[in-house]
């Protein structure tokens, strides 16, 4: 008997005898996914992974045209990234991408949550509006990604959340009570989400400073990313102790991109070094895990 197989939307034209081969090929291929990788640090991370990671590497972008242009750029350098649409502010987009990677590969080996946004210092948009936009992407979008992708990170997987040194700066400017919660080992994801929502409410009312928050929405969003990484690391250690998955937050440094401008000292390739180091921590490594890392060094939190 012969039959055609539909695998992730593509038809296998071979006979039934290739069933195990077809499934096996994708299921045994390792895969890395980088959010917001059509430009900037994300694109540089994909470039480095294409050279150093033995598996498929996905550029993902919210805009298909910009994503495909990025693929062409790397193709012209002799690299072969793949592409999937992914808008971290769109739950349907996240779910569709998660289903794609689950169906095609059975899971994900490397997830780099890189997509992020910021306002220029000179931008006149009111603080409360900026705070909403920034937290929606940097914290809540990254959290939604984690909700749908963490359960399918394979044993030995690596999760890297791109935070910022500004999370450390912002933490130091928080009230002692907030600092204590953000540094505590028992903070839950629900409590963290509640605190981020509280910041947004305070910011919209112009009361964030009097309630102990720093006057920088970007810093608060990255405090959220750093603490979320620590929470997820603790949870994975508890719930999947034998799977050897490592989760970390990191700062890429001050990097010349559309976000940070052309005066920054690091090139995107230099900005990719620490995220790629964390993504390629060797099999069997046990640390860093649940840390904030900059220039490949664990930083005090
Ligand atoms: P960038 O050049 O502005 O790139 C940001 C990327 O994120 C773009 O690809 C953008 O896509 C994407 N993005 C934004 N919102 C998205 C969404 N909802 N869904 C999917 N993708 C989305 O910035 P960058 O400097 O490379 O920043 C990368 C990461 O590093 C960010 O998390 C940033 O906060 C962090 N970081 C940067 C610096 C620095 O000095 N550059 C320092 C510390 C941390 P579009 O092209 O469609 O807008």
Automatic annotation (TrEMBL):
<dbReference type="GO" id="GO:0004090">
    <property type="term" value="F:carbonyl reductase (NADPH) activity"/>
</dbReference>
<dbReference type="InterPro" id="IPR002347">
    <property type="entry name" value="SDR_fam"/>
</dbReference>
<keyword id="KW-0560">Oxidoreductase</keyword>
<dbReference type="InterPro" id="IPR020904">
    <property type="entry name" value="Sc_DH/Rdtase_CS"/>
</dbReference>
<keyword id="KW-0521">NADP</keyword>
<dbReference type="InterPro" id="IPR036291">
    <property type="entry name" value="NAD(P)-bd_dom_sf"/>
</dbReference>
<dbReference type="InterPro" id="IPR045313">
    <property type="entry name" value="CBR1-like"/>
</dbReference>
<protein>
    <recommendedName>
        <fullName>carbonyl reductase (NADPH)</fullName>
        <ecNumber>1.1.1.184</ecNumber>
    </recommendedName>
</protein>
<comment type="similarity">
    <text>Belongs to the short-chain dehydrogenases/reductases (SDR) family.</text>
</comment>
<dbReference type="Pfam" id="PF00106">
    <property type="entry name" value="adh_short"/>
</dbReference>
């Amino acid at each position: 008997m012969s039959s055609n197989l539909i695998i992730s939307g593509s038809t296998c034209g071979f006979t039934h005898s290739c069933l195990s081969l077809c499934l096996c090929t994708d299921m045994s291929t390792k895969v890395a996914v980088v959010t917001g990788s059509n430009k900037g640090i994300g694109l540089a991370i994909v470039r480095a992974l294409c050279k150093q990671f033995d598996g498929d590497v996905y550029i993902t972008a919210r805009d298909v045209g910009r994503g495909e242009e990025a693929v062409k750029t790397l193709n012209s350098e002799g690299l072969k990234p793949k592409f999937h649409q992914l808008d971290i502010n769109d739950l349907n987009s996240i779910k569709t991408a998660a289903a794609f990677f689950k169906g095609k590969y059975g899971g994900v080996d490397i997830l780099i949550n890189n997509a992020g946004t910021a306002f220029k210092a000179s931008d006149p948009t009111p603080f409360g509006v900026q705070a909403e936009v920034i937290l929606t992407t940097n914290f809540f979008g990254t959290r939604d990604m984690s909700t749908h992708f963490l359960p399918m990170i394979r044993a030995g997987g690596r999760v890297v959340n791109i935070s910022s040194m500004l999370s450390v700066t912002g933490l130091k400017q928080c009230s002692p009570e907030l600092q204590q919660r953000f540094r505590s080992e028992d903070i839950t994801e629900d409590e963290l989400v509640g605190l981020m929502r509280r910041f947004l409410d305070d910011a919209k009312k112009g009361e964030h400073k009097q309630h102990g928050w720093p006057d920088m929405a970007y810093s608060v969003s990255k405090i959220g990313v750093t603490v979320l990484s620590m929470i997820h690391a603790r949870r994975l250690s508890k719930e999947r102790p034998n799977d050897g998955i490592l989760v970390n937050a990191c700062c890429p440094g001050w990097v010349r991109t559309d976000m940070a401008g052309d005066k920054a000292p690091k090139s995107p390739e230099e900005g990719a070094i620490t995220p790629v180091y964390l993504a390629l921590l060797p099999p069997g490594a046990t640390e860093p895990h649940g840390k904030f890392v900059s220039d490949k060094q664990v930083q005090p939190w």
